[in-house]
Every structure is written in C-alpha cells, then in structure tokens.
C-alpha cells in the first residue's frame, strides 16, 4: 500500500500507462492512491491567489474594488474543498471490512449517492447520482465507504466515464468481490449553462465487472432495482 500511495500521479492519458497496466484497463497505481504528486513542487497559496487576480483582470474586472478584495482567497479555499480528492487515498477507505455477514451472498446496492465533480475540459461542475452494487466474498465494507469513495474520485478533475470506471476498478481491486456494477447519471453545467446550452440533458455511464458483466440477468436485476418503483 505504501508503494501505491507513493506512486502518486493525477489522471494520465491512456497512452501514458505504466508497464504494469493491463491493456485497456486502469492502472491500480493511478486510481488507488492519493493523486497529488509529492515529487513535484506545487505553487504557493499566494501564487494561486495571484492567478485568480489575473483571471479577474482578464474578464475586465477591477481587482481592487471592495467586493473583490477577498475573492482570490475565497476561490482558492473553494478549490481546496472541490479538489480535496487529490489528497485522499481511495484504497484506504475500503480497507475496513466486516466478516460477520451470516453467509450473505447476494449483491449489496447503494442507490442515489449524490455527488458533484468538475469536468476536466472546462473546470465546470457536473453533478448527479451514483448507484453502486457489489457482491461480497465473505467480507463486506461499511456502506458509507462507497459514498466516501465516490466523493474522493469526484473531487478531482474528471470525465464522467473516467469517474465511473475508477469507482468500479477501486472496488474490484481492493475488495475482490464477485462483481461490481456502477451506474452514474449526471448533468454537466458545461453543456447546460454555456456552449450548446441544453438544460436538463442527462448523461448515463455504466461499468460492470465480474458476475454483472458476465450475467445479463444480474445486470438487469441491478438496473431494475436502480430504476425501481420508488423513483
Ligand atoms: N465524454 C465526455 N465528454 C465531456 C464530459 N464533460 C464534458 N465533455 C465534453 O467535452 C467536449 C469538449 O469539446 P471541445 O470541442 O474540445 O470543447 P468546446 O469547444 O468547449 O466544446 P463545446 O462544449 O461543444 O462548446 C464537449 O463536447 C463537452 O460536452 C465528460 O464527462 N465526458
Ligand atoms: Zn466540460
């Protein structure tokens, strides 16, 4: 685990995978560790605030007017919050498991995990719900940890596809369950408040591994529970 935590790097283009990565799969060293690069100096807070002032200048604002004096500080603090996932380790939240399951052998589904993430193309929010199921082998993980895992990945720059794949891959890699199913539905503000400006358009992404990938009936049961009568 230490080696994983040390091999820290943010999302990389798929053609830049380490040799250990299986073709077409995510590299565990990328998605199981915190993502801040320890080996690369980061700008200071003062430099980050100066960058915000530059952007305010760029849009034509008067950075010295009273209403904007504290804005660079607030923006950097907001960034600290929105991007805290770079400093958190996904593998750690899944490490605490419980063995007393009375032989439970069906999948566990958590539906409607709300999240907000930031798209990596425009740095604008996309938000929605994640639905996660996994079929445990002997040990189960605390339910809240799947929501925490979602937040860690969501609090980084993302595409929805990458977010979906990372959540599934982390559960698969750490818990080694019989299968994982992840469905995410989200609205992208870069598509609703700018650009093509289509309010209300939803994007759905899914990832199935193990029994969910191999058994269409299980996949269907997951999807019908997600779309169940209470929705
Ligand atoms: N596949 C995928 N695309 C995304 C996601 N978030 C934003 N995008 C899209 O990323 C694309 C970036 O396209 P570009 O043509 O490079 O950028 P752009 O000129 O700002 O595009 P427009 O949004 O069409 O104005 C846009 O089509 C966005 O809708 C995501 O999570 N997944
Ligand atoms: Zn975008």
UniProtKB/TrEMBL annotation:
Per the UniProt entry, the Enzyme Commission number(s) are 3.5.4.16
* Keyword Zinc on entry: yes
Q: Which PROSITE patterns match?
A: GTP_CYCLOHYDROL_1_1
Q: Which InterPro entries does this UniProt record tie to the protein?
A: GTP-CH-I_C/QueF (IPR043133), GTP-CH-I_N (IPR043134), GTP_CycHdrlase_I (IPR001474), GTP_CycHdrlase_I_CS (IPR018234), GTP_CycHdrlase_I_dom (IPR020602)
The chemistry this enzyme catalyses reads: GTP + H2O = 7,8-dihydroneopterin 3'-triphosphate + formate + H(+)
Q: Which Pfam families match?
A: GTP_cyclohydroI
The record's listing under SUPFAM superfamilies reads: Tetrahydrobiopterin biosynthesis enzymes-like (SSF55620)
Q: Which residues bind Zn(2+)?
A: 119, 122, 190
Which superkingdom? Bacteria
| Record key words, sorted | GTP-binding, Hydrolase, Metal-binding, Nucleotide-binding, One-carbon metabolism, Zinc
Q: In which pathway does it act?
A: Cofactor biosynthesis; 7,8-dihydroneopterin triphosphate biosynthesis; 7,8-dihydroneopterin triphosphate from GTP: step 1/1
Q: Which residues form the signal peptide?
A: none
| UniProt-annotated stretches for the region Disordered | 1-25
Q: Name one GO molecular function term.
A: zinc ion binding
Q: List the GO cellular component terms.
A: cytoplasm
**Listed GO biological process terms:** one-carbon metabolic process; tetrahydrobiopterin biosynthetic process; tetrahydrofolate biosynthetic process
Keyword Metal-binding part of the UniProt annotation = yes
Task: Show where the GTP cyclohydrolase I domain sits.
Answer: 49-226
Compositional bias of type Basic and acidic residues: which residue ranges? 12-25
Q: Which NCBIfam families match?
A: folE, PRK09347.1-2, PRK09347.1-3
Q: PANTHER family recorded for this chain?
A: GTP CYCLOHYDROLASE 1, GTP CYCLOHYDROLASE I
Regarding protein family, the annotation reads: Belongs to the GTP cyclohydrolase I family.
Q: Which HAMAP family did the record assign?
A: FolE
Q: How would you summarize the oligomeric state and partners of this protein? A: Homopolymer. Toroid-shaped homodecamer, composed of two pentamers of five dimers.
Spell out the protein name for this chain. GTP cyclohydrolase 1
Organism per entry: Bradyrhizobium ivorense
Please state the gene responsible for encoding this protein: folE
């Amino acid at each position: 685990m230490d080696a994983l935590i040390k091999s820290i790097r943010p999302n990389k283009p798929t053609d830049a995978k380490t040799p250990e990565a299986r073709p077409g799969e995510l590299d565990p060293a990328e998605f199981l560790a915190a993502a801040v690069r320890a080996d690369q100096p980061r700008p200071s807070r003062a430099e980050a605030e100066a960058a915000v002032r530059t952007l305010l200048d760029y849009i034509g604002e008067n950075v010295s007017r009273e209403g904007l004096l504290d804005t660079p500080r607030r923006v950097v603090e907001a960034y600290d919050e929105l991007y805290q996932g770079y400093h958190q380790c996904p593998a750690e939240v899944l490490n605490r498991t419980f063995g007393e399951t009375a032989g439970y052998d069906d999948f566990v589904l958590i539906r409607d995990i709300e999240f907000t993430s930031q798209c990596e193309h425009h740095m604008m929010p996309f938000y929605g719900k994640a639905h996660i199921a996994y079929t445990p082998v002997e040990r189960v993980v605390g339910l809240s940890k799947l929501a925490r895992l979602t937040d860690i990945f969501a609090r980084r720059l993302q595409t929805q596809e990458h977010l979906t794949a990372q959540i599934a891959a982390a559960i698969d890699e750490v818990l080694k369950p019989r299968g994982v199913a992840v469905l995410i539905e989200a609205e992208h503000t870069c598509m609703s408040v700018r650009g093509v400006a289509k309010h209300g358009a939803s994007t759905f992404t899914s990832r199935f591994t193990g029994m969910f990938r191999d058994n269409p009936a299980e996949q269907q049961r997951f999807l019908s529970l997600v779309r169940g009568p209470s929705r």
